[in-house]
Design brief:
alpha/beta; Rossmann fold; Hypothetical Protein, Haloacid Dehalogenase-like Hydrolase, Chain: A, domain 2; 8 helices; HAD-SF_hydro_IIB
Length: 250
C-alpha cells in the first residue's frame, strides 16, 4: 500500500523537522514494504530540510501538485501561462502586495520575516531570493492580501488558477488551474483507491477524494467532509494510527 502524507500540520509542526517518533513510524511503514510519499504545499526545495536524509529519495509532490519528484529528481514542473503570470504581476502592483513566488528553484519573497511562513522558506539556503523581474516562470504564488482579500479573490476567480484561502495565516495560496495534489500523485503512477492519505487542510481535499482512506488531522471543515476518519492534532495519536494502518494493510 502507498501512504501519502501532507507535512505542515499533519506530521510536521511549527516548521520543525519530523520528530523522532514520526520518523520511526514512517520507517516502520517502509520496513513492512509500504511506500511513503510526501505531498505538500511546500516546493520540493523546502520539503527536503524537514525530512531526514534517508527519506530524500521518497517520491514527493510539492507546490500543491506543481512540482513532482522521484528518486531525488524533479520530474515535472507546471508553471502559470504567460498571460496569467502578467495578470498576477499586475495585481501585485495595483494593490502593492507583498508576496512569495516560487520559480523552478529560486524564489522571491517580500513579506515580513516575522510571518510564520518565513521560517519555512529555504531554511537550508539551497536557492536564492531574487527580484521578481528575475522570475521568468512562476510555479506557485502566495499573496498577502491585507485588507484587499475580497477584491483579490474576485479577480483571481476569473483567472485560470486554483486558489486556497488560508485565513489564519492571512495568505492566498495560488497554483495553476487544474493542478492539485491528486494530479501530482497521478504523475507518480498512483492509482485511485490504492493509497492512504493523511492531511489537515483544504488543499488535501483532492487527494482524499481518490484515496482508500483519508485521515483528517484537526478541524478543517472542508477536509473533514471528505475524510473517512478524523484525529485530533496530537502527535502520539497520529503515530499510533500510522502504525495501526501499516499492520491492517500489510
Amino acid at each position: 500500500m502507498k501512504f501519502v502524507f501532507d507535512l505542515d500540520g499533519t506530521i510536521c509542526f511549527k516548521g520543525n523537522p519530523l520528530s523522532k517518533g514520526i520518523v520511526h513510524a514512517l520507517d516502520g511503514i517502509r520496513a513492512k514494504g509500504h511506500e511513503v510519499i510526501f505531498a505538500s504545499a511546500r516546493p520540493i526545495r523546502d520539503l527536503l530540510p524537514v525530512l531526514p536524509d534517508h527519506m530524500h529519495h521518497c517520491s514527493m509532490v510539492g507546490g500543491n501538485g506543481a512540482f513532482v519528484a522521484k528518486e531525488k529528481e524533479i520530474i515535472k514542473v507546471t508553471t502559470f501561462d504567460a498571460k496569467t503570470t502578467e495578470a498576477i504581476r499586475s495585481l501585485i502592483e495595483k494593490y502593492q502586495l507583498t508576496y512569495l513566488i516560487d520559480s523552478h528553484w529560486d524564489y522571491t519573497y517580500t513579506g515580513s520575516q516575522k510571518h510564520p511562513i518565513y521560517r519555512n522558506i529555504d531554511p537550508n539556503q539551497l536557492a536564492t531570493n531574487v527580484p521578481i523581474d528575475c522570475i521568468e516562470e512562476m510555479v506557485k504564488v502566495v499573496l498577502f492580501p491585507n485588507d484587499n482579500e475580497e477584491q483579490l479573490v474576485q479577480v483571481l476567480h476569473n483567472l485560470p488558477v486554483q486558489v486556497y484561502e488560508h485565513y489564519q495565516e492571512g495568505i492566498l495560496d495560488i497554483s495553476p488551474l487544474g493542478i492539485d495534489k491528486w494530479k501530482g500523485l497521478q504523475v507518480l503512477g498512483v492509482e485511485e483507491g490504492a493509497y492512504i492519505a493523511f492531511g489537515n487542510d483544504s488543499n488535501d481535499v483532492s487527494m482524499f477524494l481518490h484515496a482508500k482512506e483519508g485521515i483528517c488531522i484537526g478541524e478543517n471543515e472542508a477536509l473533514r467532509s471528505v475524510a473517512t476518519m478524523q484525529l485530533h492534532c496530537v502527535e502520539q495519536s497520529i503515530i499510533d494510527k500510522i502504525t495501526e494502518f501499516s499492520k491492517i494493510f500489510a
